[in-house]
Amino acid sequence: MAEFVKKLQSRVHKTISSHPEQIAVQGMAAVSYGLAILVDEDSEECQNARRRAKKVTENIKDVANYRRETLKFQEYLLKNQAEAEKEMHRMESPKWGSRLLALHKQMNTYDLTSGLSDFFSNLQSAEKHYFLKWMKFYLDRISQMHLAKLERHSKEKQTSAASLGVEHFMRELGQVYEAKHLTIKEGKSGKNLSQLVDLPKITADLMLEGFTLELFDEDVSNTPLQWISDVLTELHNKLEGQSKIMVITVLGVQGTEKSTLLNTMFGLQFAVNRGQYGRSASVAFLKVTEDLADDLGCDAILVIDTEGLTSPAMVKVEGAYLRNINNLATLVAGLTDITIVNITRENTTEIKDVFQMVACAFLERKMTGQKPNCQFVHQNVNSGWAVIQKLLDRRQLLEQLDGMIQAAAKAYKVKRNVRFSDIMDYDSGTNNWCIPSLWQGVPPMAQINRGYSENVSELKKYLFKIIKSRSHKNPPKDIPQLIECFRNLDAIKMIKSASEVGS
């Protein structure tokens, strides 16, 4: 085998050296034409979209500078507004009030930069799906090159500053839409909303086709409420009012392969290795087929993927980190029907880390009489629950979970004894899942482990049973009710933030 590998490497090296023009993608496409092989990308629509995406991205030389110059709203205005609001509450100084007023005036007159305007115009074209695919291809390549350059000149991996993806452009458009809508609502002068009036419809169409929507911007602990509400409203309209929804959320610390799990289970497009991106929570929409909807008792499933709760992108200063965790936990706990806690192997420390952060939020929801289902998924475990049970007794796990909830209850001055099972629908005998490693060996040359997909499929079937059971006991929320819940959660989040600043 070793001799065969050496011969293969030698042959590949020889081929690359003698025919370099055939190794590039375009070069291979040219060769395929001569062999009468059809190339999927060789269509007029796809090539037009490629040229447009290249035009948008070809001037990106430095990612950090481009973000500052093109994505000014999220890179400057929102961050400065968040800082001014925090300091104004903390210091009660007129200086910060004046600065906040000046920032609001600047937001009122903000217009799309040329790069962002070009991006948005392509979203309105019939070739938008090809365009977004090419944008992802070019932006990923640019980010990788920029990250490699940073790593050569710095010992620390500045992944957040080095990343630039389609999500950054969509975040900017959503935040601009939010600000424009606010200026109209308040009767202030400034640029109107007509330029972006079709953005919610476009985004709703994209969600129906598998694209994700950001719910929470951790950089400024901001939820663009009107923007998200308008997109969800467009979804409701496109579904002709048939929008009863169940919500599945995955929680876990950084690097526990949460996105890979969801992508495998539901065929979604969540970005993997998202530690390099600055997102905290994004949502995908799954339309349920008519026959399955009757059986499950819902029309759609919303899947929320959260950024790792100890992500380096979120850990900046202690106060900001804790505030982001609190806000994210409030959002997740208030919306979810089923919560998947994703951990690696038998790592009880990860369980403790997750629930110490979100216990208070789930306790608050229990006070409203609601209790989500909870599933523990142990990743990279190859020999079943017996191995976990040997290293971690179920009773010990429950005692730890009970202790976390009791600590949260004490903080909320709840006098009665509260257990984990009081706030989460959890059965230690059935709600623990072992998922083997995705790879058999070291990627990218390793083979896919078939056991991974098989176990994930079993988990998916069980989740559908839970959805069916919960839907028939209590009718799921439709999108208008979900929007109202979202608005109430945002109000709670703002009250919490204000009280934390005051303390």
UniProtKB/TrEMBL annotation:
Gene3D superfamilies cross-referenced by the UniProt entry: P-loop containing nucleotide triphosphate hydrolases
VLIG-type G domain span: 242-487
Family note: Belongs to the TRAFAC class dynamin-like GTPase superfamily. Very large inducible GTPase (VLIG) family.
Protein name: Up-regulator of cell proliferation-like
